[in-house]
Amino acid sequence: MIISGPSGVGKTTLIERLNEKFDFTFSVSATTRQRTEHETDGIDYYFLDEPTFKQWVDEDKFLEHACVFGRYWYGTPKQPIEKNMAEGRIVLLDIDVQGARLVKAEEPDTFSVFILPPSEEALHKRLVDRGRENAEIIERRFSEAKSEIKSAYELGIYDAMVTNDDLDRAADELDHLLEARLRRAARSGPATSR
Fold first, then answer.
1. 4 near 76, Cβ under 8 Å?
2. Which residue of 3, 71, 117, 128 lies most exposed, with the fewest beta carbons within 10 A?
3. Strand partners, 67
4. How far apart are CA 131 and CA 145, in angstroms?
5. Domain 1-24+91-194, what fold?
6. Cβ atoms 85, 194 nearer than 8 A
7. How many CA atoms, within 13 angstroms, populate the side-chain half-sphere of residue 70?
8. Measured distance CA(163)–CA(179) in Å, rounded
9. Does the domain spanning 27-89 belong to CATH 3.40.50.720?
10. Percent of the chain scored above 70 by pLDDT?
């Protein structure tokens, strides 16, 4: 399952709520950016230097990978996903639209949901209210968010779009969407259970 959405949309909170019921296995991405003091290698990300990341690309170890903001590489390692799926677990990928497009091209049966803000104004307010970044970074994130939302609609790769206008309502909608998908997958067999 893929869940995408712009910064500040409440995606992490919704994923946590969904995980209370479904107990996902989270896909851990690899990145070339520096680890912060609050992150753990192999838990938050696999922190790789650029030569190692490029070696993994050459060895076809990623389901998808991309350079984000022209600065750092991010990628989704294949092996842990394949292992968990073979063991019957739901694997959740929290990735952007670009990554989702690549995964859907490789694995078209992957269930994908895009989380939308109630409005552009509400999203901008959430970015400001988080208090994590300065005004310049907030405006860059807001511009990127609008572009990501536009791409999500234009690409047509998402099975559902869920507006996070009310956390409980949005969490319930995600819950029902995943339950319906799992019921369909159970009826049709393992080939479509992603």
1. no
2. 71
3. 73
4. 17
5. Rossmann fold (3.40.50)
6. yes
7. 0
8. 18
9. no
10. 96
